[in-house]
């Protein structure tokens, strides 16, 4: 029969997995009336506890076993499709696969351009503004 402590360990491990690995948040879910500093210290202690580590490892394995497609399988499929497309002279398909592969393994990062109109107050900015105004006169 599970003890009250074992139940708390399991609750902590579940919350830790659910929130993506934040020990403070997991601890505060299980023990809601504690300060952040207390949750930091005690959450860290629980992560070093052998029973909690075993529970977390078991939960992570269960999650991994339930995944329909792993990252490695996606990478292999994209490689296979890209090579087949290249062999069939379908270069647009191949290029798209190679780009997706680069994004999947972190080689490519999407960039976004952000334009902002910023009013900077500084002596240099004022001097440049005056010079521009003098040129237009």
How would you describe this structure in keywords?
7 helices; 137 residues; mainly alpha; Arc Repressor Mutant, subunit A; 0% strand
Would you write up a description of this structure?
There is one protein chain. By secondary structure, this protein is mainly alpha-helical. It has 2 domains: 4-66, Arc Repressor Mutant, subunit A, CATH 1.10.10; 71-104. 72% of the residues lie in helices and 0% in strands. The protein contains 7 helices and no strands. Helix 1 crosses helix 2 (23-30). The longest helix is centred in the middle third of the chain and has 17 residues, at 50-66. The radius of gyration is 27 Å and the shape is flat.
Proportion in β-strands: under 5%
What order do the helices and strands follow? HHHHHHH
What separation lies between the terminal Cα atoms? Answer: 89 Å
Main sheet properties: none
Low-confidence stretches: none
Please provide the count of β strands.
Answer: 0
Report the mean per-residue pLDDT as an integer: 84
Task: Just give the CATH class of the largest domain.
Answer: Mainly Alpha
Multimeric organization: single chain
Kindly identify the CATH topology of the largest domain. Answer: Arc Repressor Mutant, subunit A
Number of discrete helical segments: 7
Shape: flat
Q: Helical content, roughly?
A: over 70%
Number of domains: 2
CATH architecture of the largest domain: Orthogonal Bundle
């Amino acid at each position: 029969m599970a003890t009250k402590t074992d139940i708390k360990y399991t609750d902590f491990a579940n919350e830790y997995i659910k929130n993506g690995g934040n020990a403070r948040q997991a601890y505060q879910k299980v023990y809601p009336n504690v300060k952040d500093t207390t949750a930091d210290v005690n959450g860290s202690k629980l992560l070093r506890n052998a029973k909690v580590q075993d529970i977390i490892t078991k939960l992570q394995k269960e999650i991994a076993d339930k995944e329909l497609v792993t990252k490695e399988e996606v990478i292999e499929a994209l490689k296979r499709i890209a090579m087949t497309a290249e062999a069939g002279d379908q270069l647009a398909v191949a290029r798209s696969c190679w780009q997706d592969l680069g994004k999947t393994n972190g080689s490519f990062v999407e960039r976004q351009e952000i334009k902002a109109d910023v009013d900077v107050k500084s002596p240099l900015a004022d001097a440049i503004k005056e010079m521009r105004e003098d040129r237009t006169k």
